Amino acid sequence: MNIVLFGPPGAGKGTQADNLVKYFNLYKISTGDLLRNEIKNNTELSKKINKNINKGELAPDDVINSLIVRILSDRKFYNRLIFDGYPRNINQAINLDKLLKEYNQKISLVINLDVSKDLIIKRILGRQICNKCGLIFNKYFVNLENNDHKCDPKYLETRADDNEDTAINRFETYLQKTLPILNYYKNQNLLHSINGNDDISSIFDQIRSIIPSLEA
Is 36 a residue of the active site? Predict the structure, then answer.
């Protein structure tokens, strides 16, 4: 089963994807992580995407598609993917369907996290990522002393693009370019919307309730 986690930047897709990975032994595909990895390794693609990410803009479709093909062509990820941050527009959604068909796969479920703009901005400004283990936390919502994070706090960092101006820009970009694909998946009877304003555990309970087949 392949799942798309849908929602504006800061909606908590990464956190819920991490929960699903651990609970169901799946693989998370975050285009944001893939793009930042290209920049970190100073690859040829990084020249095209560095300015886009820092400004909170979407990377070009051809760049995203090339990264997605790498994943879909790897048999260890076959039908066990959680897409976090992709697709972000109609063209990407249509192209993903084509690529999945090419590799004999399909989207089984699309989960939309419906979150208010004010909460989105607060989540983005408080987000912290461990650069050692990759786990995501939030200084406003998650107490690091009360979870299983074992890494030294010195590894926690805030992404350069997690600031208020960029957060607002990314939210507006989402409304203009990404939100319309809800109807695309709704027409395929794949879409499930849940309240993303709840706490993390409640949101995860909602998600698990609509994918019982994975628990079998």
Answer: no
